[in-house]
Amino acid sequence: MERKANWYKLDNAAKIVPSTAKGANTRVFRITCELKEVIDPDLLQLALDETIEEFPFFNCVLHRGIFWYYLEDSDLKAKVELENTPACLPLYIKGHKSLLYRVNYFNNRINLEMFHVLADGTGAFMFFKNLVTRYLVLKHDLDVDIKPSDDFSIEEKNVDAFRDFYSKQKGLKQLNEMKSKKAYQVAGEIDDNLLPHLIEGTVSSSKFLNLAHDYNTTVGVLCVALYIKAVIQGMNRLQAKRPVVVSVPVNLRQFFKSGTARNFFGVINIDYNAADYDGKLESIISKVDKDFKEKLSPENIEKTMNSYAALEHNLAIGMVPLPIKDLVIGYFDRSAKDGVTSSMSNLGQIKMPEEVSEYIDRFSAFMTASSQQICVCSYKDKMVFGEVSPYKTHKVMLNFFRCLTELGIEVELGTNDYDKELD
Questions:
Q1: Do 345 and 317 fall within a single domain?
Q2: pTM over 0.70
């Protein structure tokens, strides 16, 4: 991580976040751990105080510079609170000096909410798994040396991996190409106060894996294919002329060796022509599988990674004052959204130390969006699909869950209190 005095440059993925955090898209994500017992807030506070010492970069505040946003060390202390407000409310407010994460609890749930400037889902989970592990160690008087298996040194956690692995390419060209295709847009009645509406569906991980095997595909491909089917079910004949495009964040740590807890991800777009759907899921799976294999090739992954680094390494952009950058990045962001129907982020199987695993029921994740975004994660035999949307109903996700039940997968549903429609 590049550091001068007590301030830090944003990583390349984080550079676009403050400029695009508007309205319902607060760029705040939530990850949750549901335990098998009620939370002790005092012990959770103690666990947080100890855990943040290993992730000092997360205890920063965001400032506006002349050319870029930057982070500064802070002596502010995060306070664990009982959850009493809607999820994923803004964490960054212009002109306010505040931390960019919060930890709260309700009954047996621990929630971590974080502004995307600090980390991606994988990086946040590094912090969260340490927090939950430390809490359970304190709660049940376990060995103090118990830590998650993916724990790294402070230096490794804080490194800007984009800078480590960047190679000069025409990344800006790829950013421009992201806005070229007009995709089908999910619509709905927007919440008057732009509050995020959450829904989560829990299924059996083993049954979903077996279903993927039945279709001779992977869990990731099946998730996206089922979502595309759910979208098509809500389209009329005129709308079917537009492609369904699902944006899929890719954890770059799988391709470049890094233990960073900061942002280190790329994005691939999976597109499907709704008019090609013949009523059989296989017709979607074959196209999605082909796209995954092509776009996850080493060459394309490096291109995706470099597209984020291009913003920093382009001298012309670097010299543009921040207010103008905000406008330009906002334009690219809106144009890119026109080319995407929705996003689906698969955080994979969450692994915890064996000594604490018996106290944990499940994990879940949610990411705000101007339309909707789905996050998927699994713990033992509980696979959770979490969706956030400013829409008052969840028509596409309910179609998605109906598709699962039709295939013999039982779904346990939950949602936030002010959204009542689960029929």
A1: yes
A2: yes
